[in-house]
Design goal:
single chain; Rossmann fold; six-stranded mixed beta sheet; three-stranded antiparallel beta sheet; rod-shaped
């Protein structure tokens, strides 16, 4: 830990080394003086030692303390106030979330969509200085929240994301292309990236996933793909009821990990797989490191001069010493 006090002119402190021998020589000289009689008051002649007797022997040390304080004042003591400033290079990021009906599959608790929301929320919380937007896609895609620094609003939009507001299907390429369009048109940030969360059953859209990935590569935008769900027989929605709910049945499902891996590799991003509770925890840890800006810390030191206070203390001690010396401790030589 840094010492909070420093001296602007520390060489003056060398004078402090001269004070002890000077004080010793002065005491020797005073003892050699011939004094016939010293008294302060009548009680002292009767053998009663008052506070005056003790104070007279110590009063000289006040003056030496004053000299030491004057030396400290010449060295200019300063109080150092350390403040650490953080500088973070802001980036523009998009979360692209799959809201197709297959995201209601229950192989992840409570379902794939809620797990995706939780992962995206954690990612947003770890990036308070970045502008982040939200795109939802199913059979089509739309911007649910534009780029914003208001992450509380963004998290509200994310929590409100639901299945059934878009045509049936999974158009991964359309979702990614929508985010790329916004980043290319309205972002001038040096760092741009997309977090794509899907169960990778691409089956619709006029722009394919790999075509969209090539667009991202051309624009210099990294795409991080998160595959949600496991392969095999999964309890998944089969049809939508009149009341807006879904009927569920167990059916085989396959996550196209090769597609998500190729999309991430083409753009310089990464592919992560979340298919159970254990891998979900690992994905959360790895997501925290993705597109996290390096924080530059600068230590700012504010200096407050203290020599005025030291001089004030020295002046008060000097006045106190003079008042005692010429008052109750006054010496009468006969």
């Amino acid at each position: 830990m840094a010492v909070p006090v420093s001296f602007a002119e520390p060489l003056w402190l060398l004078l402090l080394l001269a004070l002890p021998p000077l004080a010793y020589a002065y005491v020797r000289l005073e003892r050699g003086r011939h004094v016939a009689l010293q008294m302060s008051r009548q009680e002292a002649m009767k053998g009663v030692k008052t506070w005056v007797v003790y104070a007279r022997g110590s009063i000289q040390y006040v003056r030496w303390a004053v000299l030491a304080l004057l030396v400290l004042a010449m060295a200019r003591p300063q109080w150092l106030d350390y403040q650490e400033q953080e500088t973070v290079q802001a980036r523009d990021l998009f979360v692209v979330l799959d809201v197709s009906h297959s995201m209601l599959s229950k192989d992840l608790a409570p379902d794939r969509l809620e797990v995706a929301k939780a992962l995206a929320t954690k990612w947003i919380n770890d990036r308070p200085g970045d502008r982040i937007g939200l795109v939802l896609f199913a059979g089509g895609a739309f911007t649910h929240c534009p780029l914003t620094l208001d992450h509380r609003l963004l998290r509200a939009f994310l929590a409100n994301a639901q299945v059934g507001r878009l045509p049936e299907g999974t158009a991964i390429g359309m979702g990614l292309a929508t985010a790329l369009h916004h980043l290319a048109r309205s972002s001038s940030a040096a760092g741009k990236a997309v977090l794509l969360l899907t169960d990778a059953e691409n089956n619709s859209g006029t722009i394919g996933p790999l075509q969209a990935a090539e667009m991202a590569r051309a624009l210099g935008i990294r795409v991080y793909t998160i595959g949600l769900g496991r392969d095999g027989v999964v309890e998944s929605p089969t049809r939508k009821r009149f009341d807006g709910g879904y009927d569920f049945a167990r059916r085989p499902m396959t996550l196209d990990t090769a597609l998500l891996q190729r999309m991430a590799t083409a753009t310089g991003g990464r592919f992560l797989r979340a298919d159970d509770a254990a891998t979900l925890s690992a994905v959360q840890r790895e997501l925290n490191a993705l597109e996290k800006a390096a924080v530059q810390r600068t230590v700012v030191v504010r200096r407050t001069e203290l020599f005025f206070g030291v001089l004030a203390v020295a002046f008060c001690l000097l006045v106190f010493e003079l008042l005692l010396r010429w008052g109750p401790l006054r010496v009468i030589t006969v």
